């Protein structure tokens, strides 16, 4: 239709018109329902392949077109010469990339300059700019069609936008969950460090108490020896004194041992209580997150202005 109504033969070459026609059919091959910004933000496979050059989805559409041409029996340019075949692929690449509005903004000044000086059929750059302009115009020409077609296309576009919005919300929730898990791990490591320091202090106290117990046992042995010596040397008086000393030292040793067991048992009970409190906090936090997610899903509504 463009060829007949606009007399493109006066402005473009036959191979350029053919490239424009094929590019129109291939410019949205394997469309994923998301834009370039989402592909880059979500770190998708396509972004890893094409983000360094820009126009992620447009380069993927062109790659899909090349894959079809390389399929056996599908190369409609098979009869072209090597030079014409390479030029056809270059034209298709430039025309399909023109469907990215970022590309249109980059060449906008050149389009204005061409409009000011007038189109020159002998200028190859003018040929390229005209092809890009035609492709961009065709890609955004939904509103020029009949009402029934325009409404249907608008509904599909709204559906695609809302679907991408849902995907973006899921990505944000996953990032928040990951941040929460990181914070929990950090908090757990801090608590473990505190417990380790407390346990280290308890071990020092335990060692001190055990050393006191050993000293007590040594003193008790000394008391026994003293009693023996007392019985040998002083008779009853020496024996009484030795027994008194032995009882005193023995009671001190028993007291030290009891204190050691109390300290160790108390520290274990405190650790168990802290662990139980942490488990309860984690369960409450997960329960609240689950309830908030369910409330979001219940309250989530979509406004469709086309209904």
UniProtKB/TrEMBL annotation:
Residues 165-307 are annotated as: Disordered. Residues 166-178 have a biased composition (Acidic residues). Zn(2+) 1 binds at residues 27-28, 139. PROSITE patterns: PDEASE_I_1 (PS00126), PDEASE_I_2 (PS51845). Residues 1-171 form the PDEase domain. Pfam families: PDEase_I. InterPro entries: PDEase, PDEase_catalytic_dom, PDEase_catalytic_dom_sf, PDEase_CS. Zn(2+) 2 binds at residue 28. This is cGMP-dependent 3-cyclic phosphodiesterase.
